[in-house]
Structure formats: structure tokens, C-alpha cells
Amino acid sequence: MVKSFIIAGIGGFLGSGARFLVSRFIQISYTSVFPWGTFTVNIIGSLLIGIFFGISERGNFMSAEWRLFLTVGFCGGFTTFSSLANDSFLLFQSKEFFRFAGYASLSFMLGLLAVFLGRTLIKLL
Questions:
Q1: pLDDT value of residue 57
Q2: Residue pair 46/112 in contact by the 8 Å Cβ criterion
Q3: Are 11 and 70 in contact (CB under 8 A)?
Q4: Using CA atoms, how far apart are residues 122 and 32, in angstroms rounded to an integer?
Q5: In sequence order, what are the residues at sequence separation of 6 or more whose Cβ sits closer than 8 angstroms to the Cβ of residue 113?
Q6: How confident is the model at residue 34 (pLDDT cuts 50, 70, 90)?
Q7: Residues comprising the binding site for Na(+)?
Q8: CB 44 within 8 A of CB 22
Q9: Where are the alpha helices (DSSP H) in the chain?
Q10: Whether this model's pTM surpasses 0.90
Q11: Residues at the annotated binding site?
């Protein structure tokens, strides 16, 4: 249990750091009310978790420890539902109803699609 905790924690640390860097770079590059940084990391993270689970289901390509590190740790730290919820709230509070609806629905739908694509991609290899 302690080993799993450490593995997930290190993955989460690296995922959170990567989220900060990617999100910050995108937000600086695209000045907008729309939270492009959080949106992008959530879609990329959804694709990655689909790929990682797809690889782990193919056989002996990934150990249980690596799956824990990459999915629970890295992807869990990289993506962020709490930031998605907060960004949605801020758009709603600012009466940006069209952006709110687009952001919330596209984040969910594209995230789901990205997981599907990641898993499908690995099955095709």
C-alpha cells in the first residue's frame, strides 16, 4: 500500500507540474475569456489515459505499477475536474452563457471521445 501511494504520488507530482506548464503556456499564448489551458490539458489527459489503459489491456506491455503511475498518478495530476468546474462557474457568473455551455459540454464530450480514441488507437496497433 505504501509503495502504491508513493508511485501514485510521484506520478501526480509530475502530472501536476506538466499541467501547470502546458496550461500556463496556452493561456499566455491565447488571451481569451475561454479557459483554453484547462480545456486543453483535460482533452490531452483524456487521450493519454485512453492510451495508457489501452496499452495495459494489450498484455504484458505495462506492469501494474506503471499503470498506477501513469493513470492514477500522472493523468490524475495532469487533468483537473476541479479547475474545469471552477472555470465553468466563472464563465457562468460572468454571464458568459454561450462560452459556459460550450466549455462544459465540449470538455465532457471531447474528453470522452479522446479516451475512446486513445483506447481504439492502441487496439489497432
A1: 86
A2: yes
A3: yes
A4: 35
A5: none
A6: very high
A7: 76, 79
A8: yes
A9: 2-29, 36-57, 64-67, 76-78, 81-93, 97-124
A10: no
A11: 76, 79
